[in-house]
Amino acid sequence: MAFGYTKGLTSFKKDMQVSENLIELYSNQQTLFGRGSIDRLLPLLAANPQPTLLFCGRSFLNGPALQRLGSALNDQILGYEIVSHEASPDEIDAWVNRWRGHVDRVVAIGGGSVLDAAKAFSAMMQHPLNTARYLEKVGDTPVQAVTLPLIAIPTTAGTGSEATQNAVVTDQQHIHVKASLRHAVFVPQVAILDPDLLKGAPDSVLATCAIDAFTHLFEAYLSRKGNLFTQQTALNGLQLFFKAWPNLNRDDQLGDEAREAMMMASWLGGVCLSSAGLGVIHGIAGELGAIKPFHHGEVCGRLLFPFLEVLAESEQADQQRLMAQLGQRLLPEDPAPPALALKAWIQQHAIAPFWQDGPTLNATDIDWIVARANSKNGWVNYDAATMTEMITAAWRVA
């Protein structure tokens, strides 16, 4: 939720015509962070008994986290819904129709798709129309400041959804859209960030989720909507990413510290993107996600590398200034241009080369994506030719 003083600041901005990059911070009412913090879930639920629905992935049902919580969790919930992909409007509407009038609170334990599905469900339980009516890009009705209370527990470190005001909804079958339900009150009421929940995840999952967190931090850092607050917050997150990236899959103290750092980086990425917005990488990724079931983090990571090539050649003054500051903070000894140094470091230290091989796109796919993509909050409005070059550098074209 937005801090109480932001309404006054917004009015002040209008009255005094202050800078356009005034920042509003959206944050959880309560954030619990630390190894083993999932143990706080059951006391939280028991302290305020009410009908509660669990959203989760199959990996949670078959994993050690559920075993750790034990049968006591069953005593606190009415039932559960399994989320295996980015939820569609129809799926959210079906959940709402099934549970409306029976659920007063939601718990989400899983990756970004699980958390977004739970956030969308929690909001739509308090709205009378179908989900698509409220979606950005295609909807015709504004959301209201109402939602069920939600406890969000990420089991991946990537989306930062536990700290954002938006719930991503995807329809690849009918209206071909990937868009958000967005309001400050949609930030989960409680977030439990337990880095131990990342243990045992496949290297490919750890890497593609982490590069999503990196992209959130990096694009928010470069955003024209940003200011000192978001830029320094993003740099802090990027430093944590650098600490974590090479060691995410280690089964030792270094691995524990890496997973802790990446969980924090992901949360900071959510804070930054909510405050400063994102750029062309997500401007493309959002449209690609409307037609292809590719992992969002991998999509962002694949697009990141050609974007860094474009960025290295940029003469835009604000981009040059920000990249110089980033290079001094993260790679001070590397003589290469900061964007190229960043690309090389990420690839050299990755635990999984997610950018190799992979699925293909065809020319029709690319034309469809580019016709709808945009540069969002970047300093440069990239043209169709540049976006096409980025896409064809990131995927094989069939």
Task: Walk me through the structure.
- This protein is of the alpha/beta class.
- It folds into 2 domains: 23-196, Rossmann fold (3-Layer(aba) Sandwich), CATH 3.40.50.1970; 201-397, Dehydroquinate synthase-like - alpha domain (Dehydroquinate synthase-like, alpha domain, Up-down Bundle).
- Helices cover 46% and strands 11% of the residues.
- It has 15 helices and 10 strands.
- The chain has helices at 6-16, 41-47, 58-61, 64-69, 89-99, 112-124, 203-222, 228-244, 253-276, 280-288, 296-312, 317-330, 338-348, 363-372, 384-394, and strands at 30-33, 52-56, 79-82, 105-110, 150-154, 166-171, 177-182, 190-193, 360-361, 396-397.
- The strands form 3 sheets. The protein has a 6-stranded parallel β-sheet. Strands 6-7 form a two-stranded antiparallel ribbon. Strands 9-10 form a two-stranded parallel ribbon.
- α6 (112-124) links the parallel β4 (105-110) and β5.
- α7 packs antiparallel against α8 and α12 (317-330) packs across α13.
- The longest helix has 24 residues, at 253-276.
- It is globular and about 60 Å long.
- The protein starts with 5 loop residues before the first helix and ends with a strand.
- Mean pLDDT is 93; it is low at 1-19.
Summary keywords:
alpha/beta; Rossmann fold; Dehydroquinate synthase-like, alpha domain; 15 helices; 398 residues; disordered N terminus; 2 domains; two-stranded antiparallel sheet
Write the layout of secondary structure elements.
Blueprint (H helix, E strand, L loop, with lengths): L5 H11 L13 E4 L7 H7 L4 E5 L1 H4 L2 H6 L9 E4 L6 H11 L5 E6 L1 H13 L25 E5 L11 E6 L5 E6 L7 E4 L9 H20 L5 H17 L8 H24 L3 H9 L7 H17 L4 H14 L7 H11 L11 E2 L1 H10 L11 H11 L1 E2 L1
Parallel strand pairs: 1-8, 2-3, 2-4, 4-5, 5-8, 9-10
Antiparallel strand pairs: 6-7
Helix pairs in contact: 5-6, 7-8, 7-9, 7-11, 8-9, 10-11, 11-13, 11-15, 12-13, 14-15
